[in-house]
Predict the 3D structure of the following.
Amino acid sequence: MSVALDKIDSKNPANFELLGSVIASSPDDIKKAVLAAKSAQPSWQALGVTGRIKELQKLFTYLSQQHEQYAQLETKEMGRPIQGSRSSIDWALNQFKWNLENAAVFLSPETSFEDATQVHKIHYEPYGVAGVITPWNFPLSNFVMGALQLLIAGNTVVYKISEEVPLFGKAIDEAWQKAGLPQGVFNQVYGAGDIGELLARSDINVLHFTGSSSTGKKLYMIAAEKFIPAILELGGSDAGIVFEDADIDKIIEPIFWAKFINAGQICCGLKRLFVQEKRFDEVVGKLSKFISEKKFGDPNDENTTIGPMVSEKQRKLLVGQVEDAKDKGAKVVLGGTTPNTLNGAYFEPTLLTGINPGMRAYYEELFGPVLPITPFHTEEEAIKLANDTPYGLSAYIYTNDSKRFERVAQKLEAGSISHNGLDYSHPANPFGGYKGSGIGKTCGKIGLQQACRIKVIALAK
Ligand code: ADP
């Protein structure tokens, strides 16, 4: 990515070739987009939830028809291996479908109390105009998780996608137009953080942000000054805990995917692995072997599992974290370098041991294909290590003892907990973190209801 004053270039991270450009939005464009959203909002709200779902069904149909094109674009623009891009589009469409099928029930007025003389109902109303700012790592899912529930709830949206994936932003915009949805309900603006900040400061009524914790904190302050709600889906440094009773041969593959999906560039990825001492060498050895057998390289190759990172900027950040760990005594068990045979933002899948609290790799989020592995002795120690982070998005526990699983799950400070590699991201579940990983939830019934202002109407009979 590079941002000139008037355009944003999109580059393929696998070879740094220019893919295309989009015109960057100006401060005036943001004002116009917010005004358009404001004037379209009353008629969007007036459609009612079933009317809005009918409209959004057209978008879903259009997006589904473009499945392969979007997967190819995701691979080109952010380097995800093509098989992974297809799964990521599937995941987004699955979330979309669930919302179309279930939102009407969850957003209908609900009787909270009733007797012979009165009936009280909870009503879910839109805020008005939502500003939605998203990152680059799952371009369609980020749109679905950031904007869809707000739209279904009757809000109109001004949307800013990351400057790393402007062509995907264009594709979403085009989908809205081509599917024939109403003008002004969804409005895209393009640019980097400065444009995001202008959007956050504009005349919006609710802010949704998905991205880094540092940006999330800045935006939370802007929302506070404006006194509007902010839903913040931020970073994570999720722990994985392997207890000695776990079936190691069964959990190596789920650990691999929890960490190395999308070259480790996922907020809720497994970012720190803790293994009970007795099985430590076995896990490190088996995981190294498993990773070594996976294809690393060209994301267009159908057999590739780990491709490049999204950009040189992200790769350099990761290199700095790994070098810091090495300088302070960490051991590189696997990988650890940038291969000179590949001319892109590549970093080899890497395992580190010998991590200590003085290292950036201990306390910072590692947003790339690098996994630190640390031994522990007791359950208490594992819980303490897992919780020793400013983040709290999710956590992964590997044990065949279900009582232990439940006990540990209760004590971990995280918004979602997985047992033996189970995928907790069913669309019915809310998603969002504890501590520095965010505020508020998206997805599921709770996400839909958080996209709304809640009104109680008490009626005398
Ligand atoms: P990431 O590391 O995922 O790129 P960022 O928080 O930097 O995380 O970016 C996520 C989104 O937030 C992108 O769309 C980016 O342009 C936007 N952004 C970055 N800085 C700001 C800011 N200060 N105010 C508003 N939006 C921002």
